[in-house]
Design goal:
This protein is mainly α. It has one domain. Helix content is 54%, strand content 11%. The chain contains three helices and two strands. A two-stranded parallel ribbon has the order 1-2. Helix 1 crosses helix 2. The protein is globular.
Length: 71
């Protein structure tokens, strides 16, 4: 199911910063765009991202969500 999302700067910024902070603390930095996409998804209640980029699996492994399905 496709869901329309909104971009609330403060909410997604906080989610993205939390994600990146955990990744850096774990020594596993990833592409900032993937972090921002994950932050926006979480801020909008998206539970799963379907992607080809394995950086999302790193985010899932460290942050715990959103759930990632790789193509």
């Amino acid at each position: 199911m496709v869901k329309t999302i909104t971009i609330n700067d403060e909410v997604y910024r906080d989610k993205s910063a939390d994600i990146m902070g955990r990744l850096l603390k774990a020594g596993k930095p990833v592409n900032i765009m993937d972090v921002l996409i994950s932050g926006i998804a979480l801020a909008n209640g998206i539970e799963e991202i379907i992607a080809k980029d394995s950086d999302f699996k790193t985010i899932e492994g460290i942050y715990g969500h959103p759930r990632i399905s790789l193509l």
